[in-house]
Amino acid sequence: GAARPGAARLSPALLCPQSLSAGMAVAGALVLARSVRMTTKFKSALDIPVEFVEKNVKLRGKLHHITEKGLEVEHIPISIPFLTLMQRKWQSQGLLLVRLAGVELAPGGLAWLRQELKPRQTIWFQLLGREDLALECLVLVNKGRFLSVCLNEELLRQGLGRTARIEGLHHESRLYWKLHKRLLRAELKALKKNKGIWKEESYSERIRDRISNNRFVQTLKQFVSWLRGS
């Protein structure tokens, strides 16, 4: 018979249980794939998806070593009880090389990092770029429940480094200049306070250095040493 007026026409595909099940399966597979990527333990810079770097994703890690090349960090992925337990069986170990983006360390910078950071300490690192198998990042350390410190800026505020190009970010991008300004402000604070590499010698220190470097004084010291030896 003819259809009743006002009755909605439903597509046969929507009425088919098989089509509905297939659609749910595809959606479930996409959710699972996304979950696997978020819970995957990255053991190398190349393991990290390109879109993670492009979207400047923030990751969590455990500090292992502080070297001249950067921080060696063990990635701590998001934990989903059942999925994480399965992944642990086949995930291998490996450390990520994390560099402090936009900072050229001064000689005392490495020692300061080793003093401030504790072994196995948890840190956060925000991805900015990937260069030479290393990750260029903003590194954050919790200093309390509601307080975190950006090591990139803190090193510059202490006068233990100089602002450098942020590798991995396009130098004309808005994010590049936003971060670069932050680093320059931190460096300027150290310069104004004469801290670290920006510390100026006092007048007495300059006089003492000039006297110690004077040839006559050096010759006199050698003569005194010769007298004592004889």
TrEMBL record:
Protein name (record): CC033 protein
Main location, first listed in the record: membrane
GO cellular component: extracellular space; membrane
Transmembrane feature ranges: none
Keywords annotated in UniProt: Acetylation, Membrane, Transmembrane, Transmembrane helix
Entry annotated with the keyword rRNA-binding: no
Annotated membrane topology: Single-pass membrane protein
Cellular compartment(s): Membrane
InterPro entries per the UniProt record, alphabetical: C3orf33-like, SNase_OB-fold_sf
Lineage: Eukaryota, Metazoa, Chordata, Craniata, Vertebrata
Species of provenance: Podilymbus podiceps
